[in-house]
Design a protein that fits this description.
The structure holds 2 protein chains of 2 kinds. Chain A is an alpha+beta fold. Chain A contains 5 helices and 7 strands. In chain A, strands 1-7-6-5-4-3-2 form a 7-stranded antiparallel beta sheet. In chain A, a hairpin with a 5-residue loop joins strand 3 and strand 4. By secondary structure, chain B is an alpha+beta fold. Chain B folds into 2 domains: 68 residues, Arc Repressor Mutant, subunit A (Orthogonal Bundle); 34 residues. In chain B, strands 1-3-2 form a 3-stranded antiparallel beta sheet. Classes of the chains: A alpha+beta, B alpha+beta. Chains A and B meet through strand 1, helix 2, strand 7 and helix 4 of A and helix 5 of B.
């Protein structure tokens, strides 16, 4: 007999962070396109959101623009939306996965839990492997991040 | 086309993952491994051959028996890569965190050093 946990352990990723902001602000920043474009995607990328229909069955089309000019289309469908508590979306473009984001208010802070569930261990391994192959790109991105950090600190 | 053997290829197959799990507990001979699966000994031998080529197990001959022993240290390569991929998502949260701080400062109309 397998329990649910051991069923998904080899094809999921769970990350948790306590954010130093109240849940209303975290929710706002997560759900409004003009905010999301400011933090989504790897360092050095910019984003364009074409559609973000935040309701069950709603479409979410986001294009990430890589530092080398490459565009990455991200198409998702929202599956579940509970204001200030939970967002579930299915990433329908490659790589296919289902993400569940939980928001938990803790006074002036918010615990955010990000759960990515892939279709199979095989697919997850493939994604990890592809990411490893992209590591060269990542180093360029790190450099750009440094540069941007300088720009931002110069401005404020 | 030349197939490159690596640890990812080794564990991409559920039967091979199951074999590694069996061998992680104790070294077994090929027959004992094959008994645990509903497939031909030939098919199991092929999986064992791939695992050996991927350097995830070594085969020792003991008399007429061939014993398979797991080389688990190789698996850490995978966990390192998973950790790197995980970092990719952690970075997203880093950016969210930074952005939230910026926004809070903006809205409070004050700047902290």
């Amino acid at each position: 007999m397998e329990n649910k946990k051991s069923n998904t352990a080899d094809r999921e990723l769970i990350i948790t962070r306590t954010l130093n902001a109240p849940v209303a602000l975290v929710w706002e920043v997560w759900t409004q396109p003009e905010h999301i474009t400011n933090w989504w995607g790897p360092n050095g990328f910019t984003n364009t959101i074409h559609v973000m229909d935040l309701q069950p069955g709603g479409k979410w089309d986001l294009v990430m623009h890589g530092p080398d000019g490459t565009d990455y289309n991200n198409s998702s469908l929202f599956k579940e939306v509970i204001p200030f508590k939970k967002i579930v979306y299915e990433h329908v473009s490659n790589p296919h996965f289902t993400a569940t984001i939980l928001f938990e208010a803790q006074g002036e802070q918010t615990i955010i839990t990000w759960h990515m569930l892939f279709d199979s261990a095989e697919q997850f391994i493939g994604v990890v492997k592809a990411y490893k192959a992209d590591k060269g790109l990542e180093q360029n991105v790190d450099k750009l991040e440094l540069y941007l950090g300088q720009k931002i600190s110069g401005k404020s | 086309m030349i197939e490159r053997r690596d640890v990812f290829q080794a564990i991409a197959d559920p039967t091979r993952r199951a074999i590694i799990n069996m061998l992680a507990k104790e070294p077994l001979n090929v027959n004992a491994i094959a008994e645990g699966f509903d497939m031909s000994r030939q098919a199991i031998s092929l999986h064992i051959k791939i695992l050996e080529e991927c350097d995830l197990l070594q085969i020792r001959k003991q008399g007429r028996e061939r014993y398979c022993q797991a080389k688990l240290s190789q698996l850490s390569e995978v966990s390192v890569w998973v950790a790197q991929y995980r970092q990719h998502w952690e970075n997203k949260l880093d950016k969210l965190e930074t952005y939230l701080e910026q926004l809070k400062k903006q809205r409070n109309g004050k700047q902290k050093k």
